[in-house]
Design a protein that fits this description.
By secondary structure, this protein is an alpha+beta fold. The chain contains 18 helices and 18 strands. The strands form two sheets. Strands 3, 4, 5, 6, 11, 12, 13, 14, 15 and 16 form a ten-stranded mixed β-sheet that branches. Strands 1, 2, 7, 8, 9, 10, 17 and 18 form an eight-stranded mixed β-sheet that branches. A hairpin with a 5-residue loop joins β8 and β9. It binds flavin-adenine dinucleotide (FAD).
């Protein structure tokens, strides 16, 4: 926790150009973009980075195929371009994946019509992905016998992309690159109140949620990236905005892998909305729901579970229906959907699109990021930089490219060294991919350091928490550079262990104690107890 303590000490002693409230995807890209371009930036989150909505998504980078139905072609074009841009810049992390889609008999459109729509989608997406394909019932049955074709008219297959690790890890990548570029970021620090002085400085009273200590952070501008809590924060600082957010709850259930094929099985659920079975390592993530709520919530209700299980069991042809006891983990988040003025009544609820809006109070150097998607995150980072520049804050390196994996030459160099060091001979049986591939994807250029650690001490390549694929040097990296403050930060967000393993398996896992000693030193027992006390067993 040295990194967090150092940053908390720094927060009170400097006047920042920008203070960002919230370390979900929108705050994280803003921090990475601004600090990468040399702006003196700070970021705080009242929980862990990506601890709210940005850890609960479907993990998809998609071009918005469903907005074709409402003829929102400019939005589809924009999202497709964002998707392509992400795949291009994060080729190891964000991968094209096929959506194997079945259409029920009597659906509002016949399969052939929808299949033609996917060609238009492919065209709008600049032919960047593999071409769509029509699926007859026979093809569906032979290629994916797990799909129940009893009520199926036909289908189609098209491409979008998915996040290979998980959303929270992706977000942390931006926080990490912001930290490397000099951003002062700290988790579990809440913005309690902000006010602007007459000489134009924002003074934000913040609270360290671990110790209860309160102190002030000074900044020339303020970015509200509080996601579903954006309106609450604006109210607390008397900022009136044209936009506001409506909240839509969505849940996913994680169960054993239902098909060996690495593709998304896509259906139309009983409410007519798209319903996915998405590969997640050795598991499948099924969902989602779309329920209007008034407050951010993490509660999965019986009704939510029943909706997902009933649909899954109807749409799939399983040996044995999925039951509640088969649920390994659950995800629940609220989408912050942006609306303007009085819009957003019941009538247009499901039609609300997931675009973002950035509203600016130029006079007070204050801006709010409303809504948005992981898919659109690089645009948000760029837009925020342009706006901050317009607030007379100097951007020392405006042309610096702040995102993306290291280039091809560096990548080839890493894989060459990994080959010389026979790194892949350490690949654990728990892992479905080579160790070199996994380290590169998760750590980018830092993978060179992990490789050196393994060369110095081969024990660094040993899996520490039995049953998972995480090796000793990854724990070391998490302890030193990933601001793991609570055990949940590591198990649920820096890694995806808590998503793919049952709590009892984790609790009884040999190596958990040693892993916690690496992460928390003599607080290990306390942090383990805190983790298992805080959450309910499924
Ligand atoms: C079920 C579901 C499925 C989705 N699927 C996809 C998908 O497949 N692809 C996609 O692109 N998008 C998807 N989304 C949308 C996407 O996840 C969200 O739009 C995005 O994560 C929102 O990010 P954010 O940064 O605005 O909010 P958040 O991630 O919620 O971040 C806001 C942060 O602000 C912090 N905060 C709030 N108030 C304060 C304060 N006073 N002080 C300090 N910190 C504060 C919070 O702790 C939080 O961490 C999905 C969303 C849901 C719910």
């Amino acid at each position: 926790m040295i990194l967090r303590d150092t940053n908390i000490n720094k927060l009170s002693g400097t006047t920042y150009d920008v203070l960002i409230i919230g370390g979900g995807i929108n705050g994280a890209v803003s921090a990475a973009a601004l600090s990468g371009k040399g702006v003196k930036t700070a970021l705080i989150d009242q929980g862990d980075f990506a601890g709210l909505t940005s850890q609960e998504s479907s993990n998809l980078a998609w071009g918005g195929i469903k907005y074709m139905e409402s003829y929102e072609f400019p939005l589809v074009r924009k999202l497709c371009k964002s998707r392509n841009h992400l795949i291009r810049n994060y080729p190891s992390t964000i991968k094209e994946i096929r959506f194997f889609t079945t259409v029920p008999k009597g659906f509002r459109y016949p399969p052939v019509f929808l299949w033609m729509g996917t060609w238009l989608y492919w065209f709008i997406g600049s032919f960047f992905t593999k071409r769509p394909r029509y699926l007859t019932r026979k093809t569906i049955q032979s290629e994916e016998p797990v799909v129940n074709i009893e009520n199926v008219a036909g289908g189609f297959e098209y491409s979008d992309a998915y996040l290979h690790d998980n959303d929270a890890r992706f977000v942390f990548g931006f926080i990490r690159s912001a930290l490397t570029a000099g951003c002062t970021a700290a988790n579990y620090v809440e913005a309690v109140q902000s006010a602007r002085t007459q000489d134009g400085v924002w003074i934000t009273k913040v609270k360290n949620r671990l110790t209860g200590d309160e102190f002030e952070v000074r900044s020339k501008s303020l970015i509200n990236a509080a996601g579903p809590l954006a309106d609450d924060f604006n109210r607390s600082v008397q900022q009136k905005t044209q936009h506001r957010v409506l909240l839509s709850k969505g849940i996913h259930l994680i169960v054993n892998r239902i098909t060996k094929n690495q593709r998304v099985l896509t259906f139309f659920a009983s409410d007519g909305r798209l319903f996915f079975a998405i590969p997640m390592g050795v598991r499948t993530c099924i969902g989602t729901t779309d329920t209007r709520v008034d407050h951010p919530t993490k509660e999965v209700t019986e009704e939510d579970r029943d909706f997902v299980l009933n649909n899954a069991n109807t749409l799939l042809n399983l040996d044995k229906p999925i039951e509640k006891a088969d649920i390994i983990a659950e995800r629940c988040g609220v989408r912050p959907l942006v609306v303007e003025g009085d819009a957003g009544g019941e009538a247009d609820w499901l039609q609300l699109s997931r675009k973002h809006a950035i509203e600016i109070n130029q006079q007070e150097n204050f801006l709010t990021i409303f809504g948005g998607k992981l898919t659109d995150c690089l645009n948000v980072g760029d837009e925020v930089c342009d706006i901050i520049q317009g607030m007379d804050i100097k951007i020392p390196f405006p042309d610096y490219k702040w995102y993306g994996e290291p280039g091809q030459a560096i990548r080839s160099h890493f894989f060459h060294l990994a080959h010389l060091a026979d790194l892949d001979s350490h690949t654990s049986p728990e892992s479905s991919e080579k160790l070199s591939t996994r380290l590169w994807r998760r750590y980018g250029a830092t993978a060179f350091i992990l490789l050196e650690l393994i060369q110095e001490d081969p024990k660094q390549a040993e899996v520490l928490i039995k049953g998972t694929e995480y090796i000793r040097c990854e724990l070391r990296e998490a302890a030193h550079r990933e601001m793991v403050t609570r055990l949940e930060d590591f198990l649920r967000r820096r890694s995806k262990i808590a998503l793919i393993e049952r709590r009892e398996t984790i609790r009884n896992s040999a190596g958990l104690k040693e892993a916690c000693e690496m992460l928390f030193g003599d607080q290990a027992d306390e942090k383990i107890a805190e983790y298992f006390a805080a959450q309910q067993d499924y």
